[in-house]
Amino acid sequence: MPDDEYSGVLTTAEHHAREWLNSVAERPIEPEATPDEIKDALGRAFPDEGADPVAVVELLATAIEPGLIAMPSPRFYGFVIGGTHPAGLGADWLVSAWDQNTGSRAPTPGTAAVEELAASWLLDLFGLPAESGVGFVTGATMANFACLVAARGEVLRRAGWDVERDGLQGAPRVRFFAGDAVHSSMVAAGRMAGLGMPRTVGADGEGRIDVDGLAAALAEGDGGEEDGLVEAGPAIVALQAGDVHSGAFDDFAAAIEVAHAAGAWVHIDGAFGLWAGASPSLRHLVAGFERADSWATDAHKTLNTPYDCGIAIVADESAMVRALGAHASYLPVPGAISEPYDRTPELSRRARGVPVWATLRALGRHGVADLVDGLAAAARGLADGFTRIPGLEVLNEVVFTQVCVAAEDDATTAALVEGLRHDGVVWASPSRWNGRGIVRFSVSNRGTDATAVARTVDTVERVLGEVRAGR
Q1: Which of 107, 183, 194, 368 has the fewest CB atoms within 10 Å, counting from its CB?
Q2: pTM for the complete prediction?
Q3: In 57-185, where do the E strands start and end?
Q4: CATH code for the structural domain at 91-359
C-alpha cells in the first residue's frame, strides 16, 4: 500500500474536517439542504465507471456540507449528545486507519489492551465492582440490550431454565418492570431481548420510579392469567439514572433493596446520568447504584467521545459471557480473561473503546469530574436565565443536565421551537411532559460555557418576543 494511495484522500478529508470544526460554533445550526437536494448533488445514478478517491472525498464533503446540522455547537440542546473531545476524535481516526477487528485478544492485542484499560478505569471512576464485565457497543440502546440479555439468562438460570441452550419457547415468563418514565431505548431493548413491553409501576412528577408501586408489583406477579394473579417468577427491574426530561434519578438504594428482596435482577439505564457517579459533588444522585446487577451508559453523551461508544457493564461477568459469548473452532480457546466478543452482541467490530480510553486519559479523574460538573452548572445557568424571561416557566427540578420550559400555552411553546430553529443560533427539542408542550434543553456539550449559556438565554428571550409580536 504505497503512501500516495492514502495521502491525497487523508489530506482532503483533513482539510474539510478542519473547515467544519472551525465553523461549527458560529454557523446556523439548522441544515440548509433537504435529503433530495443532497442526492441530486451527489448524483443519483450508480455510475458504470469508478472515480479517483480524492475526487470522491471532495464530492462527498462539498455535497453533504449543506445538509449537516451543527450538532457539535455549544448551543445545540436538541438531543442528549455531546461534542467531540479532541483526544477522542484523534483516536477515532486512528481506529479507522488501524482497521483492527477487535473481537479477540490474541490477534489484536494492542486495541484489546487499550479497551481493557478503559474498562477498568470506568469501573474505578464510577465506583462499580472491579470484577464486572464491560462491553463496548454502539450506543445506549445496545448497551441496555446486552445487559438485559445477560439478565434474562441469569434469572431464568435461577429458575432452572437454560435459555442459551433451549431458547425462550417454553421458558418461565420473565417479568419486566420499569417506572412510568422509562426511556424508549429501554423499551426497544426489552422488546429485542424477548421480554416484551415493561410493566410500568408508577413514577412521581419528575419521573422517579414509585418504589412502593414496584414492591407491590413484584409481590403480586404479572397478573397475566384470566383466573387471577400468577405466581411471582423471574423478574428484571429497569431503573433510570437521568430522566430524559427532568434529569431526575431513581432512588437506587430503596428500589434495589426492594427488587433484590424479591429475587429480581436490577439494571440501570444511565445513558447520560451514570456519569454523575464520576463527580464528587453530584455522586449523591446515584447513591446506592453500585448494588445493581448491570449498568448501561453512552460515552458519546456526557463524556463527549465520538459516536459508537456505548458501554454495557454487568457485575457478574460470567452471566454476560454466557449470554453473549461466541463459540467456534476457529476462535481462541476460552482463557482466564474473557474475549471482547464475549461481552458484546458482535463478533466483528471496530475498536470503539479506544476513543473512550483516549478521552479518559486526556481528562484524568479530575477532568472528568470538571466536565460533568460544568454540564450541570450550565443547565442551572440556563434555568436561572429562563426564569427571568416573563411568561417562560421552568417546569422541572434542575438536578443534572436537563431543563424543560414552557410558554403561556402550547401554541406559543411550539412556535418558540420553530422560531429558534429558523433563527439558527439555538436548537432545542419539542416534547410533551406531564401533559404540557415543552421545549427541552439537554446540556451535553463540553463547550457550553457561561458565554454560550448567556447567548442562549438572550436568543430565547428575543425569539419568544418575536413570536408574541407576530400574533
Answers
A1: 107
A2: 0.95
A3: 76-77, 133-137, 175-178
A4: 3.40.640.10
